[in-house]
Amino acid sequence: MIQVKELTKEFKNGKNRKLTVLNNINLEIEDGDIFGIIGMSGAGKSTLIRCINLLERPTRGHIIIDGTDITEVRGKNLHALRKNIGMIFQNFNLLMQKNVRKNIAFGLEITKLKDFKIPGMNAENYKKLNYFQKRKAKKAEINKRVDELLELVDLREKEYYYPAKLSGGQRQRVAIARALATRPSILLCDEATSALDSKTTDSILKLLKRINEETKVTIIVITHEMNVVQKICNKVAVIDKSEIVACGYTEDVFQNNSSEIVRNLVGGIM
Ligand code: ADP
Ligand code: MG
């Protein structure tokens, strides 16, 4: 489970001025959820998920994953922790000079980290992370895992293609495979379908849903698009001007559309 507690993020905005991008955010995301975070551009969505894997450090508050307060984790421990959190992006962020196989394997070929220690981390997560940290995975092992991932995202035929020769949907499939290479328990998706047409969006959403069902990975979906939330999220939080203005089961949130921002989203004004 992921708990976000009283999370505030401020950016310095010139001398003696600060911009509050997240203001006292509280969230509980349960294992296996596909949890949507929806809001207009500039609402603070990306900053919120970047705090969840500590790409941004919260100004105040805590992120607790499976009972471990990760806000205090630093250095190589943080590096190890991130192996438990995959992430995909709007513009895919693939390595253009590497083919599909090598892009996917990149998630596994990590530097050896000795003796990382994350206080309070549950034994199962520790064992899994330690497995990847203890030694560089062997070539045969990497190849086997890449084969599985190619199967998972249905890209067998494209394994030696370079990203430039792939469609947007295929690129996002590669990114998904790479993000899942170390079997993370959380997958963060920041506007993962925003660069795709509606048909391709549907196929990526279907894939994410199938992966969630098969692997039980918890998925957090950041989006400004209502239909994305409606199609795959069991729960949703609506964020507006740095605050959560509604949160709960998707149907409930969109039926009790009491706040203006929710009405706007439902009405498709965005
Ligand atoms: P969203 O993803 O909902 O569009 P963001 O989280 O990207 O919103 O941004 C929220 C606000 O925080 C915006 O006003 C943005 O300009 C500001 N912001 C984001 N990152 C930084 C940063 N590193 N430094 C200063 N301001 C930032
Ligand atoms: Mg964003």
UniProtKB/TrEMBL annotation:
GO terms for biological process: amino acid transport. The keyword Cell membrane applies. Pfam families: ABC_tran (PF00005). The keyword Hydrolase does not apply. Residues 2-266 form the ABC transporter domain. InterPro entries: AAA+_ATPase, ABC_transporter-like_ATP-bd, ABC_transporter-like_CS, MetN_ABC_transporter-like, P-loop_NTPase. One of its GO terms (cellular component) is plasma membrane. One of its GO terms (molecular function) is ATP binding. Keywords: Amino-acid transport, ATP-binding, Cell membrane, Membrane, Nucleotide-binding, Translocase, Transport. Belongs to the ABC transporter superfamily. This is ATP-binding cassette domain-containing protein.
